[in-house]
């Protein structure tokens, strides 16, 4: 396939991934505010779409990390085809987990797929293991941090407001959730949309269309818009899981969950580290629930989610490797 044609295919696949990521992860930003009735579903989705767009247009550091730390795109033969294979695998896994309502990680899917396709194309030596492991460490440690911070914030809230009437507390925190849901959607855009920008930039460098990992303006805008449009569609299956099947939400716990995850995600963005917003938000919810009482968390659902997190990386690596081998047989 001619180089210009395949780069167009890659861009379409990347923006499709971004769109799917938007509706796949919409639940993460708004499930708590819908569950506590702080926001009506349609209002929450419109708000999340706008804040995701704003967040996606604000930063590019994570994009450069994704575009250059897994492998050097300039050293990968047929690098554009590698990216195409990676995106096919990541999209397939995202759609599979969305269909079954499993809040798996789009970030794990994308990073795993890129690594798997690179290995299939150029061998294990082509992977930048220092950069790859740095990303994996961030993906593993960020949920643990979110759980801890969520536990602490909820414990503080319970201590401060122990003697307040439930009705008074609920009305105040329900109002505050509008702002924390907005902050969470903004932080989601600052991190998740950057991954698609990074993968497109990887393909552009690999295909010789540009020499550096600087994110072109058209890449930035198109990725931001694709994610915002995806968010506007809404992922109702996952909203149900995140909003009701982990813990029973009250406005105070919803506020604590939103604030925790937003702080962890924006912190990761500032140090240019891609994290799984799904993992962070779900772990924050578990931490908040544990602060109320350990039995408040529906651990059966939590175990199912963690299982999906654990298998996503190896499964997408294998899927991407197979995808690249098929692409190689057909086009190379």
UniProtKB/TrEMBL annotation:
Protein's cellular compartments: Membrane
Molecular function via GO: phosphate transmembrane transporter activity
Protein name, per record: Putative low-affinity inorganic phosphate transporter
A biological-process GO annotation: phosphate ion transmembrane transport
InterPro entries, alphabetized: Phos_transporter
Source organism phylogeny: Bacteria, Bacillati, Bacillota, Clostridia, Eubacteriales
Presence of the UniProt keyword Transmembrane helix in the record: yes
Gene name of the encoded protein: pit
Topological type in the membrane: Multi-pass membrane protein
Keyword annotations: Membrane, Transmembrane, Transmembrane helix, Transport
PANTHER family hit by this protein: PHOSPHATE TRANSPORTER
Domain of life: Bacteria
Transmembrane segments: 6-23, 44-67, 79-102, 109-127, 139-161, 302-327
Annotated Gene Ontology cellular component terms: membrane
